[in-house]
Design goal:
There is one protein chain. Strands 1, 2, 5, 6, 7, 9, 10, 11, 12, 14, 16 and 17 form a twelve-stranded mixed β-sheet that branches. Strands 3-4-8 form a three-stranded mixed β-sheet. A two-stranded antiparallel ribbon has the order 13-15. Helix content is 32%, strand content 22%. The protein contains twelve helices and 17 strands. It has a single domain, classed as Peroxisomal Thiolase, Chain A, domain 1 (3-Layer(aba) Sandwich), CATH 3.40.47.10. α9 crosses α10. The protein is globular. The chain is an alpha/beta fold.
Length: 395
């Protein structure tokens, strides 16, 4: 892949920290968390989760009623935030609707609708009618957003667990480089559902406390929900302040749900991203870690990061603030990096004050101002599906 820079000309953020870039930045600077006790949402497990309360007031447009579900309401909220839909409309008019690609990541899509249907089974154990294909299906998200924005270019969903919406940035790079489109909408959307919560609980990965990435006493993750959308353009009318300059992917396939203990796949993805960006490790100013807060994952990622960067680079995990947003995490955290580049702010990890002394990276517990030129965002998925993105400030 070439080292051509792709400007990010618009982006929108929705997470438990707030709706829109301004609210998100204020929350990051305020060192706040969006995690709340799960009991508040009638969840039986003793744990914390991150919910986007604003979704409850959102409805999809009437003509898309068949697509109505929490996941698509999250997507709608992102489209309405930060003037994102308007920016995409300008790009579609400039390049043509068939020249704007759409590549989105999700891990569970609208499965919560199916969960609800199972809860409403009749005495004959049959499911009631419900819109399975326009809500539960992994393709439903692409259909909804594509029709909502009236885009007709290349479009597909990526579902590679926690790296899903990081990999769509790589997909867009390839599609644009191949001449299949001139611009692309990328990102990820994942909404809270009990399937993933109880699945992670069965793996003994859910903490009863708010997740504590890199903490000495960390014992698991907290789940969250959110959406992150970005517009990448080959030759934009307005350049944008931030650009994607490098992507790196790997698939170590070490284990179905556990990372390689030495972080081999993560290190490979980071190294590939730096090479793609023609960038040396010492030219990176901040790393947004995958940082789930589970003992094994943080340990393996720590080894991956120190292999490439050493022990002095500023790092943090924002999952202590948002929870793990699964298929949306890659996009949300990459766009946190974009926000950091624009604002000159290194976000601190919301965690316990006592860090694990066995972990060697320079984990930032309290955010601080710093002029940033280049950042790396790391996403590590189940099955060793890994992706690293290099973002840079323009000008």
């Amino acid at each position: 892949m070439s080292t051509e820079s792709l400007p990010i000309t618009a982006y929108a953020l929705v997470s438990p920290l707030g709706v829109g870039r301004r609210a998100t930045l204020a929350a990051l600077r305020g060192h706040t968390t969006g995690l709340v006790p799960a009991a508040r949402w009638a969840v039986e497990l003793p744990c914390y989760i991150g919910r986007v309360e604003a979704v409850d007031a959102i409805t999809v447009p009437a003509e898309f009623a068949a697509y109505d579900c929490r996941n698509h309401r999250l997507a709608e909220l992102a489209l309405l935030s930060d003037d994102f839909a308007a920016a995409v409309e300008r790009a579609a008019r400039r390049y043509g609707r068939s020249r704007v690609g759409l590549f989105l990541g999700t891990s569970t899509s609208g499965v919560a609708v199916t969960e609800e249907a199972y809860c409403r089974r009749g005495d004959d154990d049959q499911l009631p009618p419900f819109p399975l294909h326009t809500t539960h299906s992994l393709g439903a998200l692409i259909e909804y957003v594509g029709r909502r924005l009236r885009l007709t270019g290349p479009a597909y969903t990526v579902s590679t667990a926690c790296s899903s919406s990081a990999k769509v940035f790589a997909v867009a790079r390839r599609q644009i480089a191949a001449g299949l489109c001139d611009a692309a909408v990328v990102g990820g959307v994942d909404s809270f559902c009990r399937t993933t919560l109880y699945g992670f609980h069965a793996l003994e990965l859910v903490s009863a406390q708010p997740t504590r990435p890199w903490g000495k006493h960390r014992d698991g993750l907290s789940l969250g929900e959110g959406a992150g959308l970005a517009l990448l353009e080959r030759d934009p009318a307005e350049e944008g302040a931030v650009a994607l300059i490098g992507v790196g992917e790997s698939s170590d396939a070490y284990h179905m749900s556990s990372p390689h203990p030495e972080g081999a796949g993560g290190a490979q993805a980071i190294t590939a991203a730096l090479a793609d960006a023609d960038c040396a490790p010492e030219q990176i100013d901040y790393v947004n870690l995958h940082g789930t807060g589970t003992p094994a994952n943080d340990r393996a990622e720590d080894r991956a990061v120190t292999q490439v960067f050493g022990t002095q680079i500023d790092c943090s995990s924002t999952k202590g603030a948002t929870g793990h947003t699964l298929g949306a995490a890659g996009a949300i955290e990459a766009l946190f990096c974009a926000l950091s580049l624009e604002s000159g702010w290194v976000p601190g990890g919301v965690t316990e004050t006592e860090l694990d002394p066995e972990l060697q990276t320079a984990f930032v517990t309290r955010g601080f101002p710093k002029a940033l030129r280049r950042t790396v965002s790391i996403s590590l998925g189940f099955g060793g599906s890994n992706c690293a993105l290099v973002l840079a400030r323009r000008g």
